[in-house]
Design a protein that fits this description.
The chain is about 50% helix and about 10% strand. The chain is built from 15 helices and 11 strands. Helix 3 crosses helix 10 (about 330-350), helix 5 packs parallel to helix 6 (about 185-200) and helix 11 runs antiparallel to helix 12. It binds beta-L-rhamnopyranose and manganese (II) ion (MN) (2 copies). Beta-L-rhamnopyranose binds next to loops.
Length: about 425
């Protein structure tokens, strides 16, 4: 479905005077407000094709109505999000959940919505119907060469699909690991994964990047073969310049200092991609910013700082993707909330006075450093984010407009109440 022609303009008109009042105040307080708005306007976060249906837990899935039944409908849903917030102009495909049958047509459809193809995601954590070898005991790490070969071939196939669509990166997330002590020879598992990744790396086109994602635990509960940033970094450095580490916020043990990880990976030129979500206990796939918005801000502060130190373009320097889908919300509303939380944290990071912060550090003025850092975090920057949307033709309040135009009800009318979405 598409939004009615004038709905965004009418919505913005009704909210404009209140928005302008807030902007007048912020402009008085923030000297470089326009610079911040420009950067916000350029920033795009990819939506994964698996986040558009209701996610599940391993205990069950309660699907909602009007879920997309095909890749075309998923692209159309992202088109809707992008029309509303102008910050969701990319899709990240998961193979085999979303295999494009006609790549050209899919590419064209995405282009019509202003959507490009971000990183491709392979899947060797599930067995697919008709598959010869099983991934029950791992894929790229498997003791059997035949299983490893099958998993390597799958990744090469994913690259092929990505090339047809204009993507330029592959994310490899492995469930490989072990559930019980003694089950696995750690060194052999590492070596197998490394050799398998080398073959995948060799199949990358020259302009492509390989993102090695890590995860602390789950589905394996004793060891994970790419379990933390150190292991991912090791693979990425051994593989070569096209390989990078990918940080997924939900893939750490509780209380890990993710901002420090990000700072060091950026310093080494080895941070490639980022998956946004939030978690309270583990890989909870909760809405970005719903549990730890301050941590998100601190991470963004390091991202901005680290990218600036390297002269990287914020919008294109790294692969940005939301990686969350939960049971109890309308997925489109959840994604609007997530993108908003990301933009707010980014705006606050841009607002923080980096020079003054550096001076406070040099003077060992711990109190001043904390005050500077927190004063940006405590500023209500929502109007800046809205101003960036307004400039790009989006809605001042995307969620409000989504609800008032009854998008979900229309989708249910179009697609029915039953879910056929593939994925988790
Ligand atoms: C994993 C990981 C990957 C994602 C899958 C669906 O936990 O975060 O990035 O592709 O879930
Ligand atoms: Mn992820
Ligand atoms: Mn995850």
């Amino acid at each position: 479905m598409q939004l009615a022609r004038n709905s965004i303009a009418d919505h913005n008109q009704a909210m404009l005077s209140s928005h302008e009042r807030q902007m007048q105040y912020l402009r008085g307080e923030i000297a470089h407000a326009d610079q911040i708005i420009n950067k916000l306007a350029a920033f795009q976060v990819a939506i994964p094709s698996w986040a558009l249906g209701t996610g599940g837990t391993r205990f069950g899935r309660f699907s909602g109505g009007g879920e997309p039944r095909s890749l075309e409908e998923k692209i159309s849903d992202i088109g809707l999000l992008h029309a509303l917030n102008r910050s969701s102009g990319a899709i990240s495909l998961h193979i085999p959940w979303d295999i494009p049958t006609d790549a050209n047509a899919i590419r064209q459809l995405a282009a019509q919505h202003g959507i490009r193809f971000d990183a491709m995601n392979s899947n060797t954590f599930q067995d697919q119907p008709g598959q010869e070898a099983s991934y029950k005991f791992g894929s790229l790490q498997h003791v059997s060469k035949a299983v490893r070969k099958q998993a390597i071939q799958h990744n090469i196939e994913v690259i092929r699909h990505g090339v047809e669509l204009g993507s330029e990166s592959l994310t490899v997330w492995l469930a490989d690991g072990s559930c019980f002590p003694g089950q696995l020879n750690f060194r052999q598992a590492f070596q197998n994964v490394y050799e398998s990744l080398q073959e995948i790396y060799a199949a990358l086109p020259s302009n492509w990047k390989l993102f090695v994602e890590y995860k602390a635990f789950e589905p394996n509960f004793y060891s994970t073969t790419v379990g933390d940033w150190g292991q991912s970094y090791l693979y990425a450095s051994k593989l070569g310049p096209k390989a990078y580490t990918l940080v997924d916020l939900g893939h750490h043990h509780p209380n890990v200092n993710i901002e420090q990880i990000v700072a060091l990976l950026l310093m080494e030129g080895k941070l490639g991609g980022f998956h946004f979500n939030d978690s309270k206990y583990g890989d909870d796939d909760l809405t970005v910013g719903s549990i730890k918005p301050y941590q998100l801000y601190l991470i963004f502060r390091e991202l901005v700082d680290g990218m600036d130190a390297k002269g990287m373009d914020h919008a294109t320097g790294l692969g940005w993707m939301i990686d969350a889908s939960h049971n109890v919300k309308d997925p489109l509303e959840d994604l609007l909330q997530s993108v908003e939380a990301i933009m707010i944290a980014y705006a606050q990071a841009l607002l923080c006075d980096a020079k003054a912060l550096e001076a406070a550090r040099e003077a060992n003025d711990v109190v001043a450093a904390q005050e500077l850092l927190q004063s940006a975090y405590r500023t209500d920057v929502r109007a800046l984010v809205a101003a960036a949307r307004l400039r790009n033709g989006g809605a001042l309040d995307p969620l409000k407009l989504y609800r008032s135009t009854e998008v979900r009800q229309q989708l249910i009318k179009e697609r029915g109440n039953k879910s056929t979405a593939t994925g988790l």
